[in-house]
Amino acid sequence: MAALFRGSRILILRWNKHVDFSHVSVRSLASKTPVGFIGLGNMGSPMAKNLIKNGYPVIATDAFPESCKELLDLGAQVVDSPAQVAERADRIITMLPSSPNVIEVYTGPNGILKKVKKGTLLVDSSTIDPAVAKEMAVAAEKMGAVYMDAPVSGGVGAASLAKLTFMVGGVEQEYHAAQELLTCMGANAVYCGQVGTGQAAKICNNMLLAIGMIGTAETMNLGIRLGLDPKLLSKVLNMSSGRCWSSDTYNPVPGVMDGVPSANNYQGGFGTTLMAKDLGLAQNTASDTKTAVPLGSLAHQIYRVMCSRGYANKDFSSVFQFLREEEGQ
Amino acid sequence: MAALFRGSRILILRWNKHVDFSHVSVRSLASKTPVGFIGLGNMGSPMAKNLIKNGYPVIATDAFPESCKELLDLGAQVVDSPAQVAERADRIITMLPSSPNVIEVYTGPNGILKKVKKGTLLVDSSTIDPAVAKEMAVAAEKMGAVYMDAPVSGGVGAASLAKLTFMVGGVEQEYHAAQELLTCMGANAVYCGQVGTGQAAKICNNMLLAIGMIGTAETMNLGIRLGLDPKLLSKVLNMSSGRCWSSDTYNPVPGVMDGVPSANNYQGGFGTTLMAKDLGLAQNTASDTKTAVPLGSLAHQIYRVMCSRGYANKDFSSVFQFLREEEGQ
Amino acid sequence: MAALFRGSRILILRWNKHVDFSHVSVRSLASKTPVGFIGLGNMGSPMAKNLIKNGYPVIATDAFPESCKELLDLGAQVVDSPAQVAERADRIITMLPSSPNVIEVYTGPNGILKKVKKGTLLVDSSTIDPAVAKEMAVAAEKMGAVYMDAPVSGGVGAASLAKLTFMVGGVEQEYHAAQELLTCMGANAVYCGQVGTGQAAKICNNMLLAIGMIGTAETMNLGIRLGLDPKLLSKVLNMSSGRCWSSDTYNPVPGVMDGVPSANNYQGGFGTTLMAKDLGLAQNTASDTKTAVPLGSLAHQIYRVMCSRGYANKDFSSVFQFLREEEGQ
Amino acid sequence: MAALFRGSRILILRWNKHVDFSHVSVRSLASKTPVGFIGLGNMGSPMAKNLIKNGYPVIATDAFPESCKELLDLGAQVVDSPAQVAERADRIITMLPSSPNVIEVYTGPNGILKKVKKGTLLVDSSTIDPAVAKEMAVAAEKMGAVYMDAPVSGGVGAASLAKLTFMVGGVEQEYHAAQELLTCMGANAVYCGQVGTGQAAKICNNMLLAIGMIGTAETMNLGIRLGLDPKLLSKVLNMSSGRCWSSDTYNPVPGVMDGVPSANNYQGGFGTTLMAKDLGLAQNTASDTKTAVPLGSLAHQIYRVMCSRGYANKDFSSVFQFLREEEGQ
After folding, report:
1. Cα–Cα distance for residue pair B309/B300, rounded to 1 Å
2. What's the half-sphere exposure (Cβ side, CA atoms, 13 Å) at B329?
3. CA–CA separation, B108 vs B63, rounded Å?
4. A294-308 and A197-225 are packed helices; what angle lies between their axes, rounded to 10 degrees?
5. Mean of pLDDT values over D285-292
6. Cβ B245–A249 below 8 Å, yes or no?
7. A299 φ, ψ to 5°?
8. Do C301 and A287 touch (CB under 8 A)?
9. Which of A308, B46, C82, D82 has an alpha carbon within 20 to 30 A of D158's alpha carbon?
10. Same domain, residue pair D149 and D167
């Protein structure tokens, strides 16, 4: 506790130098208990910053210590392992790349569950297999802790602007405790049901997103070949039953919309490898539950092939480019 | 001309008995020239009625004479063949099931082009291969007539309520002449470009619609298997990037929305065979233009299989039911 | 040891009554050490019988004790659990439905590894995820035992006639010890490499088999629609580059071949659910290894839908029937 | 006739210089009537040479006159148009790239049917839409000529060695007259039924071939990822139910077989664009006949995408390379 208090003090001092917190009263800061944050990658780092911005003392760690520097400068306490975070915080957020990382961070030799305090609230915002989420929840419960899954919709931009949407699964009584933190990092939080349903909702959304995006790319391609102007075709689709998020908000055809990756050579946005990963999760859960997902399955294959043909790091809307037959070929 | 005038008079007399035209002044009626209408099926019949309602004398025909009865009662003049329509009207609308019917009605032995007057405006609202539309336009031009393609979005309900959307292809100078008639039968008309682009836009929209619908069905199915409530999942999708017309306006899962075919055992709506037909057109134009449409192609196959497994006459959203693994199997 | 010896004696006595072993000398019987057999289903039962026929004392168990009756009558010693088998035999064959069963039988509370003797050879003929096979091998090695995977090609008929093909993965030095037993139950054994490669080969074969079968069904269907006689079309394919096992050995069209499931209303053979299961394994290993398998993936989906549309228990060649559009639809 | 006789004489003189015809008696040459040949591309040229080799005077033409040079040197009479061929020969073979070329050569302004003599036998070895073949047959019949479709299996190599297989559709009574010529150019001819069934058989074969090839490529790729040696995996497949022409005769994995395109950087063989064309025909006939061909359809899409990603001129077995995820991606 002494250490934590000291940590908070350092935090306050540093804030004065680095961030404009003129709107945050010292009184509210003093009353907030520290929050652990594990995983400071492209998404986790801005999320943790938003917790700090909202007055939460943050105790952080990452497999790559250099990822913690920026947060340290903002006043976070940086420790060496998830276990050390668990010793110091009774609410912990995790934001990790994939299922094996989550398993390691929770149940590994220096994992959270090695030192977790009874009653700790564990919120995992990684996108992982719902079955792994359920396993983590069981393991946490054995230690007297509560695990919730809360994957996000929205990318790095939404994380910075605290505009993420969280899809939350877990015991309903604990949802409000989680919500208090999640609303500091996002604009919406939706309670989806028992543990794993947050992941399920995320996976479902991204599968339909991928289908809609590839479908939009095919359709725009076909229309252009048939002599339609891409902007006009988009307009027709968006006022008709072909309308979808990929046609009206994130159009994959260069020149149709501004401010989207297709307007910037498919840089930024949501990478093809990440989409392929999420579709792999959807495929696995579909196989496990014996659910037929023919288009989801084909979408997975298309993004898989794209990864091997040089599109791995482009935004997933680059499927428009991938499918287009070029002149002279 | 005498015959036509007589036709108009009968029309007026009958109107008084059958329809409320209190808002239509006799003056405007008197000034309107007759419009030909060929093809009085589920769609054509309410469309022709809306022309009459707007004060146009209608000269109609159909391969099945009994289809004309209702229109006759409303005052339309019914003739025996497309050629006879062409002798009597200088604006003609056609609404036919498929490409071969269009070819027959335009270029057959008793077809429009056998008797068409110079300067006649021919507007085809059938959904057909854009290549056939182009052929008809060339054939019409040889006779001094103008052909435009103007397929519709919206079903029987929209046709009755004059809420159709028309996608129009053809010479731009003639668009306004067509528009005058189209706005009597629909809420929107979009000029898409040269002849065939109306068909192209229609086909593109329906391909993306089919992809979105199957994708939504798969996604809802998977989510339900993973423990999500269907209404909640729809809500999550609709506030996220998975949103599409099939998820937010025409949800295929019984119980999620009212007033859609899924709420009524997939009766009414847009039949699976019709969707399979439109996807066949999309596939053919894609093959002809060497365009890759992997999801569109698979959607076509899925609707094709559904036609053979008892879903031919159900609404196309019944793909949700088709893909769902039932209990005990 | 006394129990086992007694078991063997009973075995010999019972053999004289039920099976013709006139060609098996008592001398060879006496010299053979007992073999454990776990999993006496449709496949395991005839496989175990063939071991007995070849003079091996068999110590058997199954989750459903009634499955052991026939084997008991043939002289096998029946025990209560995999652990008890492991106490009594130093070569054990397992033949189980799926990965979870294998995990239970090997590592469960009454599993083989609870009582396995050092140096025991464990041969698993189940078709499971290669990753699970590797896990079992590691677990076995910790106990000083050797695990090999040896899934089979060929169905119940081949199992009865000892005509199975085994695809074997594991330490090469142990292969010959396994081969001695496998050749009693099959016509071929192929050494494929390290642990898991037997499963890999099996999964690969069945994925290509499914693709070839669906492809053959589609092709025959299309040819028949185009006016070709099915027997003639099969002949043409089989002398050309379209030739495959499904066209020349197991044709899915009724009337083309005798003695195959398509000649018997798709009864018998290899059930659609089993194929769907194997394709699920292929899909999972493909996702895990980031391998693009578009046709394999679609084949999986097709068999998955068939399971839900009443084809679960028909032979997998019934996809011909599933895809065929019936008259009047 | 004088012209033809002169042609034949030149033919004989030239033969003595260029080709070894020591086994061909002058007597038989004298008795053979000339054969027309239209379309001297990669396939047509060696086919026409084989007719000459078998003693048939050949009267040839091609849209690109330079294509005729080699044949001219071998003694063929070269004329300017299909119509001129039709004036001089009463048996004519055509070998053209696609449906529009066939329509032009038969029914165009300088087409065969402009000058065809009654009773002429027209044999089209192009691979085209069966519906176009039927139209040509009707048009030929009106002129008193007989049209048969006889597309080939086997590539340029088989054409040179007279090892092609012909699949023949048309009136059965005329089959023997066609067979006499076809057996000079190929090893097999199969009578398939009425006009169009030769094309149907060809299209069906190539659709199944494409499915088998992509399936083999996926399977080999997956197996290699799972640690199997490609040669060993091929051996296992070829002795099991995964066996197909693409696995045992034309394996797509470099290093598995000699003398196939995969051993030569996918040079030579059957190009991806040609396969995409044939799959487009299969798709169109399937759409027209309302036949579900899900794998055939996806195969079409895959080859279509390959055409746009730089594989257009590689052998179609290069799909193995296309689907493989490279290191570091």
Report:
1. 14
2. 20
3. 13
4. 70
5. 94
6. no
7. -60, -45
8. no
9. D82
10. yes
The token pair at B299 is 């959607």
Same domain, B209 and B184: no
- Reported as a single tens digit per residue, the pLDDT across B82-121 is 999 999 999 999 999 999 999 999 999 999 999 999 999 9
Residue A141 sits in the same domain as residue A11: yes
A105 domain residue, yes or no: yes
Residue D328 lies in a domain: no
Q: How far is CA A190 from the centre of its chain?
A: 14
> Which of B164, B194, B224 marks a domain boundary?
B194
CATH number at D241 reads: 1.10.1040.10
B173 touches chain C (CB under 8 A): no
CATH number at residue C80: 3.40.50.720
Do both B180 and B130 map to the same domain? Answer: yes
Contacts of A166 (CB under 8 A, 6+ apart): A125, A150, A151, A152, A182, A185, A186, A188, A189, A190, A198
Note the pTM of the prediction, 2 decimals.
0.87
Closest CA to A270 of A240, A243, A306: A306
**Interface check C167 vs D, CB under 8 A:** yes
pLDDT value at residue A157: 86
Whole-angstrom Cα distance, residue A179 to residue A196?
17
Which residue range forms the structural domain that includes residue D313? 200-323
Dihedral sign from CA coordinates of B261, B262, B267, B269: positive
DSSP 8-state assignment for residue C263: G
For residue C111, give both structure tokens: 């599993």
Amino acid (1-letter code) at residue B235? K
C50 close contact with D: CB closer than 8 A: no
Digit-coded pLDDT (tens) for D294-328: 999 999 999 999 999 999 999 999 999 999 966 44
Give per-residue pLDDT as tens, A264-303.
999 988 999 999 999 999 999 999 999 999 999 999 999 9
ipTM, 2 dp = 0.87
Rounded Cα distance between A141 and A129, Å, is 19
Amino acid identity at B266: Y
**End-to-end alpha carbon distance in chain D:** 68
Are C207 and C165 found together in one domain? no
Boundary residue ending a domain (A166, A194, A222): A194
Tell me if B328 is assigned to some domain: no
Cα separation, D242 vs C249, in Å, equals 11
Which residues does chain C have within 8 Å of residue A290's beta carbon, measured at their own beta carbons? 276, 280, 304, 307
Structure tokens at A164: 């993420």
| CB-based contact D304 B298, cutoff 8 Å | no
Instruction: Based on the fold, state whether residues B219 and B172 are members of the same structural domain.
Output: no
Number of domains forming the structure of chain B: 2
C263 in reach of chain B (CB within 8 A): no
The amino acid occupying position B203 is: I
Active-site position among A202, A231, A235, A277 = A202
- Confirm or reject contact between B298 and chain D (CB < 8 A): yes
DSSP state of D308: I
Q: Report yes or no on B329 lying in a domain.
A: no
| Catalytically annotated residue among B202, B277, B290, B314 | B202
Segment (H or E) for B149? strand B146-149
DSSP B163-211: -EEEEEES-GGGHHHHHHHHHHHEEEEEEEESTTHHHHHHHHHHHHHHH
C278 vs chain D: nearest CA distance in angstroms? 13
> Quick one: closest CA in B to A187, which residue?
B239
Whether A205 and A303 map to the same domain: the answer is yes
A78: its two tokens: 């940086």
Q: Is the dihedral of CA B207, B210, B211, B212 positive or negative?
A: positive
Residues of A in contact with B201 (CB under 8 A): 223, 228, 232-233, 236
Instruction: Please tell me whether residues A176 and A319 are part of one structural domain.
Output: no
Best to test chain A binding among D308, D313, D320, D322 (most A CBs inside 10 Å): D308
